[in-house]
Design brief:
Blueprint: H1 10-24, H2 26-32, H3 39-66
């Protein structure tokens, strides 16, 4: 994984790195390795994650069919402060 630092803007590069690590699931995996998880707990967690994922996809599909668009937050620039 490689992140480019443009114009010596380390904060922006760090933010991009954190976003990529989040998408890759590195933070979640680190949290899972902090302590031992019993097999029954792992199965229950994975089952719940699967159910959550299916429900989320079904909700997105329904919203797409009904033409409901998600509300987007306005982006605030760091320079505007």
């Amino acid at each position: 994984m490689q992140i480019l630092v443009r114009d010596n803007n380390v904060d922006q590069a760090l933010r991009a790195l954190k976003k990529k690590l989040q998408q890759e699931g590195v933070f979640r995996e680190m949290r899972l390795w902090e302590h031992f998880e019993k097999r029954s707990e792992k199965r229950a967690r994975e089952k719940a994650e699967g159910i959550r994922r299916v429900r989320k996809l079904a909700q997105k599909k329904l919203n797409r069919e009904l033409g409901i668009t998600p509300v987007k937050k306005p982006r605030t620039s760091a320079r505007a402060k």
